[in-house]
From TrEMBL:
Cross-referenced InterPro entries: TUNICAMYCIN_INDUCED_1
Keywords annotated in UniProt: Signal
Superkingdom to which the source organism belongs: Eukaryota
The protein, known as: Tunicamycin induced 1
Signal sequence region: 1-27
Keyword check for Signal: yes
Amino acid sequence: MGLGLRSQSVVAICLVLLAVRSSPSASLIVSPDLNPPYPKAISDLKEAIVKGLGFQSDDVKIFGFDLRDALVGRSMAYEFDVEVDNRVLPFKLLEDVNRWEFVDLPIFQVEDPKRSGVGNGLIGRQKLDDGLPVLAPFQLAGPMELWIQDAKDMRLSLPHDVDAGVLKKVILADGAVVTVKGARSVSLRHPIELPLPLNQSQNGFASGLLTLADRLRHAYRAKEAPLLSLCIVGPTSLTSPTSSSPSSNNKLKLKLLAPGLVELSSASKTKAVETIPAVDIEGEATALLTPDRFTTLWPLASLNGSNSNLFGFEALLSSVLGPKAKKEGSFKVLKADVSAQTFVKIGFGVEKKLKEGEFDWEGFPLWRTKPESVRMHFEVLAEVEGDRVVPERVMQVNPVIVEDTVAPSVLMGNMTVSNNPIVLHPPTPFLL
């Protein structure tokens, strides 16, 4: 009787242990923490890549798509829509990214429901509090109007801080210059018509664009055209430019026209409009310049006419206009948008199953086993747009070529040692 109870208890303990070991909750192999899923933005990027390459999702398999190897870079994007002879020509230009780094963007994080919505960031990467890039500080000169969007707690300094409430629209009078910092994008609100002909570059300046800007500014001064209107997204401050010269007067006067609408004008009426202090790309004040209308591109007061980017724009515009660039006439700019962009560069591989007759096996060694699939390596350059990652360019790259190693027996035709001829060497005193 005692042995029966003891054996039953042993069997019960074994069953409990077996149930615990086979329980899914106690298994470490299927734990989601060991194999977290891709974020939705990255999963959508993979699907877009497969469709863009023209592959079927059933025939290909993407491997090596590791977010820990993703590089993040900042760049500038220029988008224009030019109307020439009732034809609309869209353009999109991207500056080269001069620095790639490992940054933990919010889109790289995977939410874990077991951790109350806290994202699992990638280890060993630089944390980024705000994933939105901003433009370098730049200067704008009147006459023009600025529409402000998404500007929370924007600072207005003239040069001292002024509390004007939440600003939605700022009018810059003729002669007023402001420095804009923290903006994410600048765009044209209304189409503008520019006169022709387009002068050729000379004396180290993009004279064609400078002439167009000068004509446009005089038209706005004479009120021959509606005021130039720009939309600025997310600026953190509008300040009066500072100068290294103590005698210069860069103060601005503020006039409240309506709630959220102010006008900024120059405090000194005798100050020349063209006398504008220059600010470098980092926003630090430099020596005072006195550029005239042939060296400064209005309304960008901080952009000198000798800037290399202007020569590229002028050459592009000349090629688009063609012979019309040297004739009297006009053309329209329907859209002009300059924005700071975030790009992601990541490498991956594609494994595709080979179908019969799809690959030419000529020159393939007979002793090698024919593969059933082929692997190709790519690199994708994608743009981050909010919660989405849009592929811009997918390039095929050549991986490191692995050299084949062949055993000596294969080179000898798989001959055995018994078939090799016996060679007897002459005896030597040192042979035992």
